[in-house]
């Protein structure tokens, strides 16, 4: 607060902040409450013509700071005095002490803008206001650190907490036992125009405005961490909080639980940037394939229930859920021929989702954090038929997907009764397995698992399966050969796969170099609103919106065969005729937007004219490199022959009548969910309303 107060009456680091005068000030007798109201003079960076038309050189804001030392809160609110009958600006920010950690400062900020009329320059004023607001936020950290350093140079490094006068202590202590929280002043939801500079960033962590799904009542104390997350160093705890806060500010979907975020941090040795990238790519993948709902909405085919030789079986000595897989008894070729890769992959995903659920249950049962499971793989019966090429390809793909989206979920892998053919399979599979995961493998040949250092070191004797010489009946299916009568043709499997890919309101499209994907939207009423939501699943693309008064020719579907593409669900439609000229036959209505792999983009456009609008996703550059050093399956298996000049998007569009759309009457810029980076693009326009919660 002392650093903040040094910005008045003026601040050389904020050129637009010309001067300020105190118009009202109040202090309570015990000095717990201090309210100060200032009239601030601002030189807004606006075109000279606009200032001349408005008839002003400066604008004035009223700022009110309300400090409650007893509750340890600071509320800052502001509103515009100039043009208040034409433009209404309200801003509010609040500093509070985190309820569970007194060393943390919680910071919330919001601002609203309502332009009723402004001499026909409403759109210009809105852009100037948003530009100024964004600029001030970016300078906030620099300004507060400048004054903090100034205080340190003067020898001020500590400010003692307020304590009540002796006469008030008894009354204060009794009143506090009756009410846990009592705000000193009820302040409307607004904030200071220039005040948002200094309140942008503190070198402390910020608290979310809503409880996080990952923590009960957002408890972040030592007991919660030890009970649900395990032993964390201060650095690791800080990484978790910062990454979770970043997700809350930028991710527009379901926020993962703390345990899940921790897995990605551990997989990248708590490097936040790397963990954030793979986590956001995984969140996009979960959204595309609706993985969050797989246990509730998908029933495995009967073939899997009868012939997939795997299942859950009690837990190991550490309390981890135990999954038993009798791979040697499983007919991988028969399962792939009867079901296809997609159904097999989906079944493995459901197993992993069930594993996450069991980890949560065991955490409650055993009273300690359990975030991974143990897998016991019995290779008795493994032979050369298991090395069937399509089956190995399916296995490698499954490993790749699981490694990318379920990191640090495998606590231990016990491989029993490995036959002589096992080294061949291991040579094919091991390059696709992360080094950290490989360290968790324990391989036993023959009956070695029965001796010292064997199975009894990890699993209680009472639950060793009967087929391994134990006394516990194991209900895992015995597998066996899949009857050939259940085999499906390639066409049937392809149709089945497409069905699996399209169980969503989103559509999937392929974008090639020289072959963009385009969607036609016909608008009858001007001022309708086109909205879009899309994820860039692979590669980098450029998103464009065009308008044409005449309808394009019937869409041409690009031949996937020309690109050697066999993956299901992708389509490519081109609408703009090659003889059309930009500016004559059609026009661009939004600036091109470059979208990186892994990003999620939402936006809308208010149409000015009826006619035909074309949304276009165009190839931008070579697909982004994977974040892991592990080779990709598609790079190794030449049979896939996937083109390097291919991008994939998953999109959803909708047209809304203007009367149903509660947004700005100017075009709304696309907003990134920040899946690849937190950038200036990570903002969203809605009712010209902006809010931020920033933490360090």
TrEMBL record:
Transmembrane feature ranges: none
Domain PRELI/MSF1: 1-156
Entries under Gene3D superfamilies matching the protein: CRAL-TRIO lipid binding domain (3.40.525.10), GOLD domain (2.60.120.680)
InterPro entries: CRAL-TRIO_dom, CRAL-TRIO_dom_sf, CRAL/TRIO_N_dom, CRAL/TRIO_N_dom_sf, GOLD_dom, GOLD_dom_sf, PRELI/MSF1_dom, SEC14/CRAL-TRIO_domain
MF terms in GO: RIG-I binding
UniProt keywords, alphabetically: Cytoplasm, Golgi apparatus, Immunity, Innate immunity, Phosphoprotein, Signal transduction inhibitor
Domain GOLD: from-to ranges: 502-655
Sequence segments annotated as region (Disordered): 171-191
GO BP term, pick one: innate immune response
Cell location: Cytoplasm; Golgi apparatus
PROSITE patterns tied to this protein: CRAL_TRIO, GOLD, PRELI_MSF1
Main location: cytoplasm
Pfam families: CRAL_TRIO, CRAL_TRIO_N, PRELI
Domain of life from the UniProt record: Eukaryota
Role this protein plays: May play a role in innate immunity by inhibiting the antiviral RIG-I signaling pathway. In this pathway, functions as a negative regulator of RIGI, the cytoplasmic sensor of viral nucleic acids. Prevents the interaction of RIGI with MAVS/IPS1, an important step in signal propagation. May also regulate the SLC18A3 and SLC5A7 cholinergic transporters.
Quaternary structure and interacting proteins, as annotated: Interacts with RIGI (via tandem CARD domain); the interaction is direct. Interacts (via GOLD domain) with SLC18A3; the interaction is direct. Interacts with SLC5A7 (via GOLD domain); the interaction is direct.
The protein's name in its UniProt record: SEC14-like protein 1
